Amino acid sequence: NVNGKVQARMPVEEWFHVEIEAALGNNAPRVFKLVLTPKNTAPQTFRDLPISGKNFREVHWLGFSSTAAADTAFYLDNLQIKR
Question: Rounded CA gap, 67 and 43, in Å?
Fold first, then answer.
């Protein structure tokens, strides 16, 4: 969801690949790229998505949470963080 618009819908109870790329630092652009690849499906690429936090310039902590209204679970595998 970006600016109130749903960008993509991903399958339930299936693995899919998520790639997020963003330049960080004081002079970095305030946008990021998101690539979503469901199993046996072509990647969906979203470029120039806005970074919402005005002061977000570096990563000190990374967490995963759900905004679902009901009980839910999700699983992470093969997590890679690259510089």
Answer: 24
Task: Flag whether pLDDT at 2 surpasses 90.
Answer: no
Q: Stretch 38-64: mean pLDDT, rounded?
A: 91
| pTM of the predicted protein model | 0.80
2 vs 65 pLDDT, higher one: 65
**Tokens 């072509």 belong to which residue?**
42
- 3-state SS track over the chain: CECCECCCCCCCCCCEEEEEECCCCCCCCCEEEEEEEECCCCCEEEEEEECCCCCCCCCCCCCCCCCCCCCCCCCCCCCCCCC
